[in-house]
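Q: My labmate handed me this sequence with no annotations at all. I'd like to see what the chain might look like in three dimensions before we decide whether it's worth expressing. Could you predict it?
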Amino acid sequence: MGSDTQGARRADSAGTADSTGTLDEALERLHACGPEHEGWLSNHAPMAVEALVRHGEARSVHRWIDAYRDKLEDMPSPDSPVTEANWREALGDPRRLADWIDHFTHQIDEHPWQDVLALWWPRLLPGISAGATHPVIRTGHAVRALLTQGGLTTPRRTELAHALGYWAARHSTLPGVTLLPAEATAEAGYDAVPLIADQSGGIRARLARITALPQRPVPAARTTAQEAGSGGTDPDEARADLEEIVRAATRRYATHAHGSPVMLVHAATAPNAVLRILPALPRTLWAAGADAAWAASAAVTAVYSPAEGGPTPSSSPVAPQAAFARAAAHGDEHAIKFADTALDVVARTDGGDPLVTAAMLRATELIEPV
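A: Here is what I predict for the chain of 370 residues:
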C-alpha cells in the first residue's frame, strides 16, 4: 500500500495532534447518529469537531455538540447487508445507509484502513458530488485524523467507515457534460466555469442543469510539454495543481461568497478534502483524485457563484489563527470547516495570504451565527 510520508506531514502542518482524547470521545458520542437529518441534509458534527480539536478548540467541542443536537438523528434502520456480490446494485441507494456503514465497519475491522480506502476510491470517486460533496469532505476529515500522530484509534477507524458508507449510499454522478479546454491557472479556470442560467432549487436540481465544465487547470508550460508527447500529469504535479485549486477557491470566496455564503464554502472544502486523502492513497490514484476534485469544485461554482464578484476586501490585521477562533466562536459548522481549509492554505503559503484570512472573516460575516 503506497503512502506519501512527506505529503502526510504537509497535510498535518496546519494543526496538532489531540492530546486530550476529546476527538475520540466526541466521535464515539456521534456514531450513534446517522449521517443525515431531515431527509438528506448532512450531519456536519464529525467534521466540525475534528476541525475544532485540531486547531486548539477542544474545550468547546462537547458544548458545540450540545448546541447542534437538534440536527442529530438516530442511525437509520438497516435494510439488507451489502456484500461483494451486491455492492454495485446497492451503490447510491440511500435506504442502505446503515448497511453501507456496517459493511465498511467490517471491512476496516478486517483489513488495513488504507487498503480499504484504496480499493474503494476508484469506485466512489465518480460520485464525488454526492450529498452536496459532504461525504468526501467527511472522508477527508476522517483520513486526516487517522494520519495524525497517534491517530490510529478505534473511533477514528469507525469514523472512516461512517464517512465511506455515507458516500456509497448517496453516490451519484454528474450528468454528461461537455469538457472545455483547461485554463493555465486555477483562477482562470474558475472564471471560465459556465454558470447555469437558472440558479434555483436544491443542489441536485442545479447540478442536473450543468452542460459544460472546464477540464482541470494545467500550467501552460506543462500543456506544451504534453502536446509535444512528454506524457501525462505525474502524481506530484497533480497534487500541486490541487493545492492551487484549493488556494484559488478559498481566495475566490472573499469576493464571490455573497452568491451563496454556505454552499460556496464547498467549492474550497471539497477539493481540500481530496488533498487530505491523497497521502493515504497509492500515488497512481492521485491524478484521478485531482481531476474529480476540480470537477466537484467547478460544479459547485457553476450552480451557486454570482455572475460578478464583489470588491476585494481590504487587508485585516487579524492573524489566521485568530480568524479561526472567530469562526469557532461564531459556531456555524460551515464557517468552522471553511476556516479549517483556509488554515491549510495558509500553512502551504510562504508568508501567508491576506486574502485567505479575509475570506475566513467573510464567512463569519455572511453566514448566520449559531
